[in-house]
Amino acid sequence: MLTFINPGLLWGLAGLAIPIAIHLVNRQRAVPLSFSSIRFIKRTTLQQKNRRSLTDLLLLLLRLAFLAAVIAALSGPRWEPEPKGLLASDESAETVVFVVDASSSLSGWGGWEEAVEVFRTRLAELSEDTAVGLVVFGTKVLAEVAPTRNRSEVENTFLTMYPEQTEGVSAVGIKRALELLGSAPGRRIVVLSDFQVSTWQSELLPDVDPETRIDFVGVGDFEQPNLSILSVDSFASREGGTRVIARVKNDSSETAEISVRLQVRGAELEEAVRFSPGQIQPVAFSVSEGSGSEGRVFLPDDTYLEDNEYGVWMGSSPSINALVVIPVEAEPEKLDEADFVSKALSVEILGASNPYFVNGADVSVDIGALIGKIDALYLAGSVSYLSEEQMGDLQRFLEEGGTVFVSPGKMAAKQYQRLREQGLSALTFVGRSKNAAEKGVPYHVGWINPGSDLGKLFDEEAAVDLYQTEIYRYIRFRAGEGAEVLLRSENGDPLFVRERIGKGTLLTSAWSWDTRWSDLPLRFSFLPLLRESLASAIVDKEGTIRLHCGDLLSPTDLPEGASPSDSEYFLLTVEPNVFVLNNKPFEVNVSRAESLSQRVVLSDVRAQLFQNAKTVPAVEPVSALNSNIRSLWPYFVLAAVLFYLVETVLSGYVDNRSSNEVHA
After folding, report:
1. Which residue in 222, 230, 220, 196 sits closest to 309, CA to CA?
2. What tens digit of pLDDT does each residue of 593-609 get?
3. Are residues 259 and 339 in the same domain?
């Protein structure tokens, strides 16, 4: 078939009408003749020549052909043979595999009902000779049928399925479909999904060869309004009893007035709440003592039911013991940072399932004596002042599961050097940024790691305040291997880094968390940023273990000799549940990532699937196909030269003829 490298240049052929118009409006100029006298010249009537008709037609055609040949040559014409599997004669050999998303979100927004309708329609449109397969996926492959001409088997298998209460892992479905297709001729994958961002924004998508066709068919209507319970936390109230805090989001463009209910043992509490469009609002309940250790929060039914219920553990949670260490004599200004951090950890904050117990100490503290008694150390510019013995104890504290938060002080370069020499950090000191007063404008957070706990906490709306944080100065360092960057500046410099040391976690900030270095302590994002950073690191002290439906229990949480795949333990996490196992409380709820009413950009998904198509080593059929591609532009260039030569000769002849007629 004829193709063009630059097909847009073919629009230049429309310009061929210009010479024709010029030819039509052309006027032959009269040649003036001088006479000494016109007395003896008689008046006569001359026959007028039609100036509006095409004259010298052959010459005009040659000029048009020359221009057309030049335009065609520039557009890069070439002849490509039809690829096998796309020829009309091979249509009967087409092999199609339907990949159907059965994650939790498909049960809402009308997604599954539309998927069933589309599946039946698409299946009926295929010819009887087409082999059809099926892959239904959630977090794993839920059902599959190898390509077959038995349509009833494929349809019946699909109709027995329904979305599970799990997240979707799109890479699993696409990869299995490619395995079922193998090297079959006319390979095609038809994907039925709501293409939710949380399911399809994945770096795990497999590479697809260029001979496999993929059709994306979107189902469901995310424009339908939905309210969701994002999270529920409980903690002991200072007035006695328990406080339960539910974070509820109105994911619609309309104001909503609803009743939020909390069911506890023998009682039901209800709060009427008004939500503005897109608003996330905490809903608080005060539960009296003796109401039990389990509660469930409910919203009214809407377009997606799975995020209208949330189970919460209301039993006691152990406190997290933290110690803030500062160099009081060398850097007394660090008292301000210690004050901000201590207040932030001590305050009753919404969403804090574990209370913090915070103390302060000077750099002379015996770190070795704290192992097993303290969960977190906040070293406010203190690393540079620790002794060799203290550095060894700090390493042991981390390796045995402790959490250390490090902020810079006056001797930042020495701080990073000591941590590297002790084998505790892969960060390298680069220098200090300019002060905002010298620079003229403050620095800002430019990136939040989307795969981290902070990325999940600071979604699009919650991240606005963090992005607006004004940082006056910070330490520039380079993150080495094993360092997970959580925050970056607008210039791409690491601002907040997490490193795993043995069983523990080292958190390093590029700026001091006081008002001399930034306005972060005065912002709403300060409390959740600090507390979430510590809470996600202190896993062993977490009062409640939170899982998503479909997650397997960790072998460390099971009795000796038990397996997570044993039905007794496997069934505990299939559906939303609250239970205690080995004296550890567990909450199992549907992943709130399935509540995102946002579609992925399909062109980005397609580009990712085929990103290596041009670099994949060519197999023999592809090489043979490429070798048969013939460039045709040299022929058009040769034709243009030929037309030009003939036009030149003919133009000279026409000019001579016209000159002779004039003189005659």
Report:
1. 230
2. 999 999 999 999 999 99
3. no
